[in-house]
Amino acid sequence: MSNKRTLILDKEQIRQKSIRIAYQILEDNFEEEAIVLVGIADRGYVFAKRLQQILQEIAPDKSFELLKVNIAKTKRSLEASTDEPLERAKDKVIILIDDVLNSGRTLAYGLGMFLDIPLKKMRTAVLIDRSHHQFPLFSDYYGLKLSTILKEHVEVELEEFDKKEDAAWLS
């Protein structure tokens, strides 16, 4: 595998795509008073916090709650925990958020957390959708849909987590 990295999104592009996703979430859930943003640790949660901030700026009359999900992504069965009780999402719209959608396994595990909780609606949001789905999960809101070969890797760097300037790289 090559060590060559190609920049696919810079800081400004990530900001613009985040704003666009926030507006799409609002448009799709215009009549909702409360929306729960569920960020998958680590970068998905950072991205969810950013979306929460944008949403609060453009729709201050609505409530945007934040929930962090920690998932054992390498396990073959669901092992996950949350920073708040799942009941906070009961009878609400939730948006399951991650940085990159690759096979769909992580989002499937995130969905699995809410199977016993009655929800109004569940949607997914990702910064980059790679379109290599092995699970029947797709992004409702995405910043960039990218066709890659399986050997390629997409890496998102977010300042709050990686201590580097925001960027998305293909390697």
Automatic annotation (TrEMBL):
Keywords: Glycosyltransferase, Transferase. The keyword Transferase applies. The keyword Secreted does not apply. Residues 8-158 form the Phosphoribosyltransferase domain. Gene3D superfamilies: 3.40.50.2020. InterPro entries: PRTase-like, PRTase_dom, PyrR_bifunctional. GO terms for molecular function: glycosyltransferase activity. This is Phosphoribosyltransferase family protein. It comes from Sphingobacterium oryzagri.
